TrEMBL record:
The keyword Hydrolase applies. Gene3D superfamilies: alpha/beta hydrolase (3.40.50.1820). Keywords: Hydrolase. It comes from Chitinophaga sancti. Pfam families: Abhydrolase_6 (PF12697). The keyword Acetylation does not apply. GO terms for molecular function: hydrolase activity. This is Alpha/beta hydrolase. PANTHER family: HYDROLASE, PUTATIVE (AFU_ORTHOLOGUE AFUA_2G14860)-RELATED (PTHR43798:SF33), MONOACYLGLYCEROL LIPASE (PTHR43798). GO terms for cellular component: membrane. The lineage of its organism: Bacteria, Pseudomonadati, Bacteroidota, Chitinophagia, Chitinophagales.
Length: 242
């Protein structure tokens, strides 16, 4: 029976952000990639609204023993879920997760949604600016030029900054893999080290020449780190059963 894997995207993320993970792990795992309703959040506690959405999604699909993977905002939600439902999460994987510190200038988006500015902000996400393709920039620009979507993004971003997770991290019982870009400027490497120190069973893998979204910028390295970790976890489980 295949294990369940859930992939949670970031604030400006798209389901396509996980294409490389789906391609590598799709045959061996049942993978779920929910589209987080970032643009439809209420004014009150939008981050908890998204957590509630994920809880209902998991319940509706009757998922158990989950490998929960989150990037940026998705990592933040994954932390909240793992702390609240420790029996449901078999492994937690965080990459560029918010929740401790995040270097953003979200407040300037509504006033500065020019193509040049958005191009610069998208490039800032990656170590290699070439990863910020025209299509990716166009997706973000479309969001920032839509008033409703832009307000939704701002609500969630501000809510995420308010929900500091340091007190929850010691409660996480799931073995945790942290995959971080060494050149991440949004959640710098020191943030990953703080996650590693605060989560009881955490391992940090650092990818060189990589920014805030390793699964997009360095997909082979990201997949290798995840595969090695899961292989090791399976080996440990097997050794305990014999």
């Amino acid at each position: 029976m295949k294990q369940n894997m859930i992939l949670l995207h970031g604030l400006f993320g798209q389901l396509s952000n996980w294409d490389s993970v789906l391609a590598q792990f799709g045959e061996d795992y049942d993978i779920y990639v929910p589209s987080l309703p970032v643009y439809d959040t209420p004014k009150e506690e939008p981050l908890l609204f998204l957590l509630d959405y994920v809880e209902k999604y998991i319940a509706a699909n009757k998922l158990q023993n989950i490998i929960l993977v989150g990037n940026s905002l998705g990592g933040h939600i994954a932390v909240l879920y793992a702390a609240r439902h420790p029996h449901q999460v078999k492994h937690l994987v965080l990459t560029g997760s918010s929740g401790l510190y995040e270097n953003t200038n979200m407040g300037s988006f509504p006033k500065r949604s020019t193509a040049a500015y958005i191009q610069a902000r998208v490039e800032y996400t990656f170590h290699d600016p070439a990863v910020a393709t025209e299509a990716l920039v166009a997706q973000v620009l479309t969001i920032t030029k839509d008033t409703q979507k832009c307000l939704g993004v701002l609500r969630v971003a501000k809510s995420a900054q308010r929900h500091y997770v340091a007190d929850l991290l010691p409660l996480i019982t799931a073995p945790t893999l942290l995959i971080w870009g060494r050149e991440d400027r949004i959640t710098p490497l020191q943030v990953a080290k703080e996650f590693e120190n605060m989560i009881p069973d955490a391992r940090l893998v650092v990818i060189n020449d990589c920014g805030h979204a390793p699964m997009m910028e360095k997909p082979d390295d990201f997949n290798f780190a995840l595969q090695q970790y899961l292989n090791y976890a399976i080996t440990i489980v097997l050794s305990k059963t014999h």
